[in-house]
Specification:
Layout: H1 4-7, E1 10-13, E2 24-25, E3 31-32, E4 47-61, E5 72-75, H2 91-95, H3 129-136, H4 139-149, H5 153-156, E6 161-173, E7 176-181, H6 182-191, H7 195-199, H8 201-207, H9 234-240, E8 244-248, E9 261-264, E10 268-276, E11 287-293, E12 296-303, E13 310-318, E14 324-333, E15 336-337, E16 341-347, E17 379-390, E18 393-397, E19 403-407, E20 410-430, E21 441-444, E22 447-458, E23 470-474, E24 484-486, E25 488-490, E26 494-498, E27 512-513, E28 522-535, E29 538-553, H10 564-567
Parallel strand pairs: 9-16, 21-29
Antiparallel strand pairs: 1-8, 2-3, 4-5, 4-6, 6-7, 6-8, 10-13, 10-15, 11-12, 11-14, 14-16, 17-20, 18-19, 20-22, 22-26, 22-27, 23-24, 23-28, 25-26, 28-29
Helix pairs in contact: 6-9
């Protein structure tokens, strides 16, 4: 295999909607631009979830644009539910007149061994132009495409071929899960008489088509000179949007870096490493470690370790208030560690607020999903070495001149041992203003409230821990994996979590509205994941769930119809 270092120059004519409107220079002649805006609101049967994206890649002749491979779809996601998709065609085939054809059988795609960066942007999963450049200019990505398409690696990087890269969105439309490129979305919207874009405007007419576009014309596709944040129409998408072009001609190899750890924004966390020594480190000459995090340095002094021992060393710090990626490094004196630098992603979980249920929502294909179970760690233990002097006095005789006592003692080592445990409970119930609720039984369409608690029990100083700070609730109407609610937190060591005020509530109540279509005589179960209780030995977490029973709908409570939003909160009838 030819060395990618010698052979690849990557000209990427693709532009991500996450970035301000400005140009960036690559190591070669690549130029990039992008824009976009936040997500709009969907409904419980019409929505896109951040991170549910991918790309369709076709290898084409660098001069004519004729396909030399079949299109191949890539996504980081595993799809465990039925997915409607179309026969795989690239943008050039559609522009030449190919029709949109439903595909039979299972959706065929590949999951990269090294995850792709986000293609469609969101606050919680922001697309990043530098990460995308590194990914598609890497030897790994070129080999991945070569393996998937059957075009040899050497041919792919020879300069004779280009990659046509089209963004794919995976979204739910009228209760059915779809996979579409931006071009397919525009064609389908035409066929549906505009219904697709009317239900998912931010996805179909903004975030998906503006995920990738050209700044300079190539292969007959014009550069996009319109707004990078405004809504676009089907004609604009078909002619100019939803496409990136990559060619390899001689740039240095660019490696890939995946995050080593993920933290939440605005959170107290603990970052730790394990240091080792093959010699005794005692109070006469102790070790120290300095952590370098986001422009600040934190030094841990007076570390002692017996010969051949190890010690967890940590720092407690507060994450930035905005999503970002940072590099954390550690410098050590008189000790070693396996890794001194790693990447941390800081993410915002407050992005995927569930859409407002409406009176016309239906979901006839719904089946009650299984309650998820994320990794749970409810206890941790760690220790800290300390040293004390063990004296051993010997008399040193100087003959006629007398003598003196000499302490030939040594350092003994022992540990202070610490432990922590996390326990919790959760309760959901009909909102206080639900007029016909009886105990935990209510009609669909009304709101529910939640109280979750998490108690951290620990025998260590405050520098050793951060109590539980984050709780995220997931809901059955979204299969526990699409939209979620980030709960408010209060209470410290005995933390209490509640829903945030609902922006769709007339009275700003801390509720989640159940969908009107939820089946009768069924448990409506909310799942809550409690995280961000930190110790030097790692993060503690809890899986919690609770249910209310659904019996009837709010329409059963009304003799004559009022507005849907009035009926679900009108306690003063």
């Amino acid at each position: 295999m030819k060395r990618f270092l010698q052979k690849a120059v990557c000209l990427i004519l693709l532009f991500l909607l996450a970035l301000p409107a400005k140009a960036y220079a690559s190591n070669g002649s690549g130029n990039m631009d992008g824009g976009g805006s936040g997500m709009g609101q969907g409904t419980s049967t019409n929505y896109w979830t951040p991170g549910y994206d991918g790309v369709r890649i076709t290898v084409v002749d660098a001069s004519s644009g004729s396909a030399v491979s079949s299109p191949v779809d890539f996504s980081n996601k595993t799809f465990n539910k039925p997915l409607v998709h179309f026969a795989k065609k690239n943008k050039f085939q559609y522009l030449a007149g190919a029709a949109l054809e439903p595909a039979g059988g299972s959706y065929v795609y590949q999951i990269p061994a090294v995850a792709m960066p986000y293609i469609m942007t969101s606050n919680s999963k922001p697309a990043n132009i530098e990460n995308t450049r590194k990914y598609f200019c890497s030897e790994y990505a070129a080999q991945m495409v070569a393996d998937a398409t059957g075009v040899s690696y050497d041919s792919l990087i020879s300069g004779s071929y280009k990659l046509v890269v089209e963004p794919i969105g995976y979204f739910t439309f009228n209760g059915t899960f779809y996979a579409m490129t931006a071009t397919e979305g525009a064609l389908y919207n035409r066929l549906s008489g505009g219904a697709l874009a009317s239900k998912l405007p931010s996805t179909v007419h903004r975030n998906l088509p503006l995920a990738l576009f050209l700044e300079t014309p190539d292969l007959g596709i014009p550069a996009w000179t319109g707004s990078s944040t405004a809504y676009v129409n089907d004609d604009q998408i078909l002619s100019s949007l939803g496409i990136g072009i990559v060619s390899y001609e001689g740039l240095p190899e660019i490696g890939l870096e995946a995050p080593d750890v993920t933290y939440r924004v605005n959170t107290d966390v603990i970052t730790s490493i394990t240091v080792n020594t093959n010699r005794e480190i005692n109070p006469d000459n102790p070790a120290n470690v300095t952590f370098h995090i986001n422009g600040r340095s934190y030094t841990v002094n007076n570390i002692v370790i017996p010969e051949g021992g190890s010690q967890i060393v940590w720092v407690k710090w507060h994450t930035p208030s905005e999503p970002c990626r940072i590099t954390i490094s550690a410098s050590l004196h008189r000790a070693t560690t396996a890794k001194t630098s790693f990447i941390a992603d800081i993410v915002d979980l407050n992005e995927n607020i569930p859409p407002d249920p409406t009176a016309t929502d239906t979901n006839p294909r719904f089946s009650v999903p299984s309650i998820p179970s994320n990794p749970q760690n409810t206890s941790a233990a760690w220790s800290v070495w300390y040293a004390y002097w063990f004296p051993d006095w010997d008399w040193c005789d100087h003959g006629d001149e007398g003598g003196h006592w000499v302490d030939n003692g040594w350092w003994e080592f022992d540990t202070h041992n610490y432990s922590a445990s996390l326990s919790g409970t959760m309760n959901i119930a009909p909102d206080d203003i639900v007029p016909t609720a009886q105990g935990d039984t209510m009609k669909s369409g009304y709101g529910i409230k939640e109280i979750a608690s998490a108690r951290l029990t620990i025998n260590a100083p405050a520098s050793h821990y951060a109590p539980a700070q984050t709780a995220v609730s997931y809901f059955p109407e979204f299969q526990y994996q699409n939209y979620w609610r980030l709960l408010t937190c209060s209470g410290g060591m005995a933390a209490t979590f509640r829903f945030q005020p609902n922006e769709f509530s007339t009275y700003n109540r801390q509720v989640h509205f159940s969908p009107i279509w939820f089946p009768d005589h069924t448990s409506y179960t909310v799942y809550t994941y409690v995280i961000d209780a930190w110790t030097p030995a790692g993060m503690l977490s809890l899986n919690l769930n609770d249910s209310v029973q659904i019996d009837g709908s709010l329409y059963d409570d009304w003799v004559r119809p009022y507005s849907f939003t009035y009926m679900r909160e009108a306690w003063d009838r």
